[in-house]
Protein: Beta-glucuronidase C-terminal domain-containing protein
Organism: Pterulicium gracile
Amino acid sequence: MRVTNLDPMVFASLLLNFLLFIDQVNASVTVQYQLQKQQQMSASIAATASVATYTGEAAYNPKVLIAPPAPDPATTNVQINLAPTVQQAGLSIPLKNPFFGFSIEMSVSAQVYGKNSSFINVPFLNLMANVVERAGEVHIRCGGNTQESAAMVDSNPNGGMISKDYSSVTGTTNTPPIDYTVELIYLLSNISSLVNVKWFLGIPFNDTNFRMQIAQEGSRILGDNLIGMQAGNEPDFYTRFGRRPEGYDVNAYKGEVGQVIEILQDPQYEKVRNKIITPSVASEWNLQDVWDSGLIQENANSIAYISVERYPANNCAAVFGTNGNVINPQDVIGDYLAHSKVRDLVSFYASSTLFAQTQSKPFIMFETNTASCGGFPGISNAFSASLWALDYGLQMAYTNFSEALLHVGGQSVVYNPFTAPPTNVSSFHQWTVGPIYYSVLVMAETIGSSGSARVADLFANDNNDQTPAYVIHEGDSPARVALFNYAEDTTGGHDYTATISVPGTIDSVKVKRLTSKTVTQLNGIYWANQTFGVNFASDGRPMGDLVVDIVTCTPSTATAPDGSTITSSTCLVTVPAPGFALVFLTQSALDESDNAHPTETFATTAYTKAHNTLTVDPSVLATSNGQDATVRKYLGSTSFGTAGGAVGVRVPGVAVYAVSMALGVGMVLRRLV
Ligand SMILES: *[C@@H]1O[C@H](CO)[C@@H](O)[C@H](O)[C@H]1NC(C)=O
Ligand SMILES: *[C@@H]1O[C@H](CO)[C@@H](O)[C@H](O)[C@H]1NC(C)=O
Ligand SMILES: *[C@@H]1O[C@H](CO)[C@@H](O)[C@H](O)[C@H]1NC(C)=O
Ligand SMILES: *[C@@H]1O[C@H](CO)[C@@H](O)[C@H](O)[C@H]1NC(C)=O
Ligand SMILES: *[C@@H]1O[C@H](CO)[C@@H](O)[C@H](O)[C@H]1NC(C)=O
Ligand SMILES: *[C@@H]1O[C@H](CO)[C@@H](O)[C@H](O)[C@H]1NC(C)=O
């Protein structure tokens, strides 16, 4: 770790943290890294050669787009005038960490978490530990489309924790039923015993024989680590998906939630009966109708979270070959580099978050990402997604959301925050950390650990689309400032200097930056000079020396109209094009962001033989949530053979890759602390 321009005493606790970390790194890890570096080089050479004809897993799509032109003239100065809390407009409700969590598709559980409760993926634990270090805990939803027809069984024919019955899949986008054993719940529990992960699960709603085993076993095994049970996933799509007859509406759904709540009155459900998450509506039902139905008000004692789900766009036509418009990612990359787009997306929920406040319930974005049906290659897996997700997260915070879960889908999607290696290459390749994982870490540091941070959009620089800024207040004062620069200019001509005017006298501020050479770059993202490297490069621990910049400020005084003296300090902070800077106005603002919890890390220390078959499951692509009516119609009609809509639609083949296994590497957990 190197902390620049800084009295080492100031960062004594930071240093201690680092020494603990060093202590945990053993020699075998160094060897691993060298091996990985060689592998990375050959992997990137192979990738470069095949961009035009890439047919591999979506998660490693090497396509690089062209950045939108930087604005002319360039913004080179942004004035930020901070005010005490009483004068700052638009502050959110008090927010606590974690704000960003993960929604991990249930069907990819074995790939992501590990094969069973005694075979946990070490890089996954490290990735969670990094978040815990900053946010105290991680919230993960084990669920998604595939939770709806999941069934708990005593055992699977393949002896595994999860099996998917592809024989009963009838349509392209039909959700294959998942049969899972109670081992999955033990696995989640064992993860929580190693890193502080809290879980959301979902009661299957594919039909009204609500299979309650997940609530029974979830509550029995996970106890307080189970923090919510979703009652239905996107019920507004149920008629389109053939799960309910025509005419199914908000009131019908409300009746079903009532039935589940009735079942939960049984004593065995004591620990989960007040943890319901509802309504998880996407985009078909009018939200005001849902709030007007009394669903929340009449079941207030049972409900823990009010939820919605949303993707801003979809890539369904390209992935499934429907006759909807195939979106060329190059045409929409600008939508992910514009503050106004983020505001439009989130402001849609402003009246709903106010409603949630009247009900004293947290409002959660239960599943989201850059685009449904797997995301856009070149956007979802590029630095653009880091900046976008961070702006989106802060905009949700400002708009009084309490949490948001970023979706993880496995090998077949582009937008993963992290991707486990395909099992047949895990002997030498490791995990791939995506751009929005960095956003999760940065968001955790931005919100901080006080539990009462309040966020305001500053509408900076005349509400400029490319240079948004937010302030985060703690108590009565601004504590942190978040500065974005969406422009790309490798000459430095669009870097800007924020002139931050802070109330009171301060000598200096500390700055951490999130950087990449270009917005379109797929690898080479750095947070305070630390990175998780290129594809297949990560064991879940940050690499590189931490660099925190110190910026000296200039105090000044002025005379107010009433004759009193006003003291303020001016701090000049540069923000690269493209990039993001988090400015800590006080030492405690920095301490709160990353010193509260020492990191526990886990090293990969043993090899075992592994054998598995990977199969791409279309339902992990989260097909349901895009905005393209044609696609939704297609999805509803062809998947389930209902009438209408399918005429003229090319029915694509399901992409199923059977991956034959070489000797793989398993990772056996060895706890180093
Ligand atoms: C867990 O998975 C590993 C790797 O596949 C296997 O060796 C081990 O026997 C499994 N343990 C149990 C209890 O199933
Ligand atoms: C719901 O899922 C269960 C478990 O996969 C399955 O047995 C049942 O047939 C499904 N119901 C409908 C209506 O498809
Ligand atoms: C993991 O789960 C198994 C049950 O499947 C249990 O026997 C074991 O003690 C657990 N390990 C930890 C570390 O919690
Ligand atoms: C967030 O909630 C606060 C407190 O109720 C309110 O003043 C503010 O206007 C809300 N913000 C938005 C963007 O709706
Ligand atoms: C960033 O970290 C690398 C090590 O990965 C180090 O060589 C480099 O000097 C660091 N940058 C700065 C500005 O300290
Ligand atoms: C892994 O599986 C993929 C897909 O079948 C194949 O293209 C690749 O060559 C395999 N890699 C190894 C190292 O076996």
